[in-house]
Design goal:
Blueprint (H helix, E strand, L loop, with lengths): L7 H11 L6 H13 L5 H9 L4 H7 L2 E3 L4 E5 L9 E2 L5 E2 L4 E2 L1 H5 L4 E3 L4 E4 L4 E7 L5 E8 L1 H4 L7 E2 L9 H7 L12 E3 L9 E6 L1 H11 L2 E5 L8 H9 L9 E5 L8 H15 L4 E6 L24 E3 L1 H5 L4 H4 L2 H14 L9
Parallel strand pairs: 2-5, 12-13, 12-14, 14-15
Antiparallel strand pairs: 1-8, 2-7, 3-4, 6-7, 8-9, 9-10, 11-13, 15-16
Helix pairs in contact: 10-13
Length: 354
């Protein structure tokens, strides 16, 4: 498995997250879809989607909803046997009387169990964004909190989590978040490719941003819950292995946010992503639209339509990092990544050394 000095720090944390009981991805999908089916899109979220130039009908079909608090979505069954589900072609989930077991409710992020055995939504109200895997399963739910929360310093995007039972804090910490079987946070996959881009897979920071980028570019895109794909490296590796086509014949495009090469904390994870993708793809490129700084540049979901395909530059790792200020390139951390990690994988390409 691909590893750098920095990612070794995640190994112990992942081991702990792998322990304990978990819902399967199929269970998560059916339960999350059942929640989505009981929610609507309200005006505040509709206006936000329109501001992002997202088609509302397509958004509803994809599963965007308004996530509201204390809405009952299930009841606790008296049976200890796991609830069985079925799904129709139009995403209707058949759960008898919407009853699930206490185990299932306690392991499902975004809900909590009341004293009268109702299962209700919990967390922050806002725009619900389904996180879909390469198999089309809804493996997590992300929320973009409403403005009233953002003014209080809450993150712009959060994966649902919950205190799902009256159990101890230790058990709560193990079961209330969207860690998968690898102990990692999930990635999303948007298969929106046109014939022209069928040999390209894009990588973009963010769940909503990658959805917008995939639609605008007509390209298959994998999105991360932030920029650090490498902390979900096993998830990414499995996702690529599950692709139907031969990945080694495809091209990878990385769409960094504006100002990435001026921010070491963001740049280093993208360098690691580039190096990992080199082991899987025929070609790997950074896609650059001149977004040098946050103040003067735009992220991929903001670039004007007329320049999306005409003004992009494809840069290799060396050329992209040549854009970074000297004080960043001269740091020992970046020097290590180039001289040690990249040289080990590309020993015959000395031009990549700084």
């Amino acid at each position: 498995m691909f590893e750098t000095e920095r990612t070794k720090n995640f190994i112990e944390r992942k081991k702990k997250r792998k322990e304990g009981d978990k819902l399967t991805n199929h269970e998560k999908h059916l339960l999350n879809q059942a929640i989505i089916n009981q929610l609507e899109l309200e005006d505040e979220e509709i206006n936000e989607l329109k501001n992002r130039k997202i088609n509302i009908d397509q958004a509803k079909q994809f599963g965007f909803r308004s996530f509201l608090l204390n809405k009952q979505v299930f009841t606790i069954s008296s049976s200890t046997t796991n609830t069985t589900f079925s799904q129709t072609n139009n995403n209707e989930i058949n759960i008898k009387n919407f009853e699930i077991t206490e185990r299932q409710a306690s392991l499902l992020p975004g809900v909590t169990i009341t004293n009268d055995k109702k299962v209700v939504t919990t967390g922050k109200e806002g725009l619900l964004i389904p996180v879909k895997s390469e198999l089309g399963e809804i493996v997590a739910l992300q929320i973009r909190p409403r403005r009233k929360y953002q003014m209080k310093g809450v993150s712009k995007y959060v994966l649902t989590s919950s205190n799902s039972s009256s159990s101890s804090k230790k058990k709560k910490q193990e079961t209330n978040f969207h860690y998968n079987e690898f102990g990692e946070t999930p990635l999303c996959y948007h298969p929106f490719s046109s014939k022209e881009n069928e040999n390209i897979i894009g990588f973009c920071e963010g769940i909503l941003k990658s959805y917008i980028a995939a639609n605008r570019l007509k390209m298959n895109i994998i999105g991360g819950n932030g920029c650090d794909f490498i902390i979900s490296i096993e998830t990414l590796d499995q996702m690529l292995r599950n692709m139907k086509d031969d990945i080694s014949l495809k091209i990878a495009y990385i769409f960094p946010d504006s100002g990435t090469h001026c921010n070491e904390q963001v740049l280093v994870p993208f360098i690691e992503l580039y190096m990992f993708l080199e082991t899987r793809f025929k070609e790997v490129w950074f896609v650059y639209y001149g977004q040098y700084t946050k103040e003067k540049g735009m992220d991929i979901d903001e670039v004007p339509e007329e320049v999306l395909n005409e003004e992009k530059q494809l840069l290799n790792l060396y050329d992209y990092c040549e854009l970074t200020p000297n004080f960043i390139r001269e740091k020992n951390m970046l020097g290590f990544y180039f001289k040690e990690e990249h040289n080990k994988r590309k020993s015959n390409k000395e031009e990549f050394l700084l």
